[in-house]
Amino acid sequence: MPLTVTNLEADPAYAGCLAIAREQEIRACSFWPILGRLDHPMATLALYYRHPRGPSELEHFLLPSVLDLAGLAIKNKRSDERIRFLAHHDDLTGLPNRMRFLQELSLALARAARSGHQVGLLFLDLDRFKEINDTLGHHVGDAVLREVANRLRANVREVDMVARLGGDEFVVMAEDFSDSTVLSGIARKLTEQIALPMVIDQQDCHLTASIGISTYPDDGDNIPALIRSADIAMYRVKEGGRNSHQFFDGRDIGIEAS
């Protein structure tokens, strides 16, 4: 049923907007909710009248069909937007997904090739994340991943891109940096932030991360080579004790990550 105000002048609840109503020659109004699943309100259809009155019989007859059609249109629009979002974003964390990351990395490398600038990749893998899933459950693991994503977003520069590649693997793409110390600073900040305690579902979760860093064009002049270099550097950190970062060393080119 609609909320109806048959005479704005006589309703003290609308005293604050009478000047605007008079200017627009509005004397009455009715508000019709557009409902979604489980009668959850999605929007409101408002009708304004130039004379004091309520909805007519014809309006009562026609508007339920109008509201149903409006609700269907809104749901379809939201579904389309959700599909488009999920095509390029990770459903769990809301971060850009692998596909979006690869698209943006391709564009970044093209820009760098024209300008002569560098592009940095920080390949981040959570240390012993499987133990959290195994001991505390996947619902806690999912919450940890969301918290990690939030910490990553909050601790990179505005020009940097954070993406989730899948599982417990994340990546930061950095442009517009003067030298490698900028990348070191980002990596150090991220490992420090991830190592801070987390309380998830009343459970204390302690986590660290290993980060491997590669730069274009020194460590690879194409996407597969650049990612592989960062991955190798990350596994070097794992071998060295985890919870740190390391740049790719060309002498490790023969090492296969496992």
Arithmetic mean of pLDDT: 91
The CATH architecture of the largest domain = 2-Layer Sandwich
Low-confidence stretches: none
Order of helices and strands: EHEEHHEHHEEHEEEHE
Helix fraction, binned, reads 40-55%
What distance separates the N and C termini?
63 Å
- What is the tally of helical segments? 7
The main sheet orders its strands as 5-6-4-9-10
What is the alpha-carbon Rg in Å? 27 Å
> Mind describing the biggest β-sheet?
5 strands, mixed
Tell me the overall shape: elongated
Query: Can you count the beta strands?
Result: 10
CATH class annotation of the largest domain: Alpha Beta
Find the CATH superfamily of the largest domain: Reverse transcriptase/Diguanylate cyclase domain
How much of the sequence lies in strands comes to 15-25%
Label the structural class.
alpha+beta
Counted up, domains total 2
